[in-house]
Amino acid sequence: GTRIIYDRKFLLECRSSPVAK
Amino acid sequence: NNNINMCPGVGEHPLQYNYTFWYSRRTPSRPASSQSYEQNIRQIGTVASVEQFWRFYSHLVRPGDLSGHSDFHLFKEGIKPMWEDESNRSGGKWIIRLRKGLASRFWENIILAMLGEQFMVGEEICGAVVSIRFQEDILSIWNRTSNDQMTTSRIRDTLRRVLNLPTNTIMEYKTHNDSLR
User: Fold this and answer.
1) Residues on chain A bordering chain B, Cβ-to-Cβ distance under 8 angstroms
2) pLDDT tens-digit profile of B95-148?
3) In which band, very low, low, confident or very high, does the pLDDT at A21 lie, cut at 50, 70 and 90?
4) B151-178 pLDDT tens trace
5) Which of A4, A7, A8 sits opposite B14 (nearest CB)?
6) Which of B132, B136, B138, B123 is nearest to B179 (CA)?
7) Contact in structure between B75 and B93 (CB atoms under 8 Å)
């Protein structure tokens, strides 16, 4: 099935903006 | 939180799998038998989304700041970070030995690659460990099937890429069976 893939850059962006996008 | 059924919060980015953090510390006087290992390791929290991961991780001590003989483990929920676990029994691990001072940065990079499903090996990844020792620190990533060479090679190549390891870094693959002997 589909896998949920995130790159490092995206994960780090989520850290600095905790509000959901 | 030790909740077994952690879910992503509203608007959060779900992870492919839930992951559980574990922590263990060995006092030098104690033997390293499997029983004392199980007694010394404890679950410290489970995360289901990117946001939950950062909230939890931000409150953890950085591994490089730990002293003595300590380990952080991040494993898929339901898999114990022990070779005896059914998911690990036929598996093995890539081991990377690091000189002091590098553990925190490399640990973060390895777990981000794991949470983000960068290894592209299906269900094969079980978890990752950072082991703080006196002379050096050790990173490892565990997979289910040690004799699947396509998978183990792919994990090694992804590690090289995401960690951007110094060229002289030695990577070693050990089956859990070998570790047991």
Assistant:
1) 3-8, 10-12, 14-15, 18, 20
2) 999 999 999 999 999 999 999 999 999 999 999 999 999 999 999 999 999 999
3) very low
4) 999 999 999 999 998 778 889 999 998 8
5) A4
6) B138
7) no
Asked if residues B169 and B159 have their Cβ atoms less than 8 Å apart, the reply is: no
Both tokens of B57, joined, read 């991780």
**Distance between CA B141 and CA B75 in Å, rounded?**
10
| Residue with token string 């002091």 | B100
Identify the H or E element spanning B174: strand B171-175
Q: CB burial class (10 A; 0-12, 13-18, 19+) of residue B74?
A: buried
| Dihedral (CA of B127, B37, B84, B89) sign | positive
Return the residue in B54, B57, B162 with the most chain A beta carbons within 10 A, the one to mutate for interface testing. Answer: B54
Length of chain A: 21
CA distances from B152 to B84, B88, B92, B109, B124 (A): 20, 14, 9, 19, 9
Neighbours of B170 (CB within 10 A): 8
CA-based end-to-end distance of chain A: 24
